[in-house]
Amino acid sequence: MAFHLRSVSLPSKRLSNEAEVEAELQSLEASISSPSATMESTCDGLRRLGDVYSHIEEIIHLPSNQVCSIQQRKELDAEMESSLELMDLCNAMQENFAELKTTIQDLLVALRRGDDASTQAKIHTYIRLVKKAQKQFKKTSKKATSDECKLVKLLLKARLAAACLLELALCLVAKEVATPKRSLVSKAFQKRSVVVCKEEQLQALECILGDFEHGAELLFRRMIQSRVALLNILSS
After folding, report:
1. Which Pfam families match (predicted)?
2. Which residues contact residue 63 at a Cβ distance below 8 angstroms, ignoring those fewer than 6 apart?
């Protein structure tokens, strides 16, 4: 797989109303489900979703959303409960990507030293960390709350997109070391020239893991901001 040292992000789009935010979420859903999804496109998806959360926060502050019916309040309460689970997942994934990045850094050191035993140990550590992270998604509910309220519908779609993007990101980075035919280090012990080539790809993987770590952190911050805005409505 060809790598780029940094993922390329397009300028943020200004989304002025609910319809445009929903259209952006549908675009993200299509990108997530695309068989041609890459680590770079997934990283950009995290950035785009962070922007979506900012636009949802702006929608929350609109005068038309400052007064809610009893039913709408119930729906918002239910969605806020579900969002807590996603915030925990974002926080955990930020830590997971940081751990994986550190492991790749250690793997690079082992490769440069020609320490085969340490290299193998770091590969196993990476695979173990990925499997541990994957278990967290089994605990994550993708259950939908009622979507009669337009605002709740946007929050629901954003929440589901966030969980799917984080899971896709983990799946993509897992393949880079864990899949024998595509493994970046599967032939590391055969020729030193191969090791040099693998080092360059591992450096790129280290970089993209840093991007994913930042993307998870961004989502976490944006979700907190939208949550505070919702709490202000519900407490009024």
Report:
1. BPS1
2. none
